[in-house]
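User: New here, please read:
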Amino acid sequence: MSIIEATFKGLKAKNEAALIGYITAGIPTPENTVDIAKALIRGGVDILELGIPFSDPIADGPTIQAAAHQALDLGVTVQKVFNMVEEIKTEYNIPICLLTYYNPIYRIGIEKFMKMSCKHGVDGLIVPDLPVAESKDYKESAKKHNIDTIFLVSPATSEERFRKIEDATSGFLYIVSLYGVTGARSSIENNTLNLVKKFKQYSSGKVNLAVGFGISKPDHVKQIVSTGADGAIVGSAFVKIINQGLTQDSMMQRLEELAAKLKQPLRYKGI
């Protein structure tokens, strides 16, 4: 059992769902990332997602796209992100996933990338632009290095395709809750809740289901877990705070407070 799976299992034993927090590595400065991660963990984030900045982040909305370009301008590289993971792990034994597009993996080489990931403490990988049908070598290498492969399903995913993606996934399955790109929304639509219920019916129960895209408020996560999701993924809401130009202390306080507010409805499934 991987550390990601064990985290979900431990939370379920307490009747809790997981808060998965995303940040773009390297903003507002590379030196801040580790402290930001620690603030989120103190606030209640159960699983951390670090985004490797990429020049063409097609799945991301304007907030995270801007963050990625800012991080690239600051000289953030894949190796620097690995170093951040390792530093966080020295203090917190929390599951850490990297969200990356396939280009950096391909450029470095699949096997070398997996070796580097394992060496620095990465527990899972999310690659939005890698189709399951083209992931054989990627999955085999990840499995060899004990790294979970987290695939995505969307509103367009059929039952047949869902089952294939579920079979390829380990750690958790990422449910993209809406058409379009990432970004904080003011409300959760009924279509999103119905989508989660649909995928819950399709699921064999082998993989935990976590929902992302547009989730930014405590009420959002409460609604998501009430439909049967095992976790909620929040990114843009955290990145927006990071990009507000706050003082270091104010930024850390705001991030920790938001994480705590988002985690509260996930304890005892919001009851």
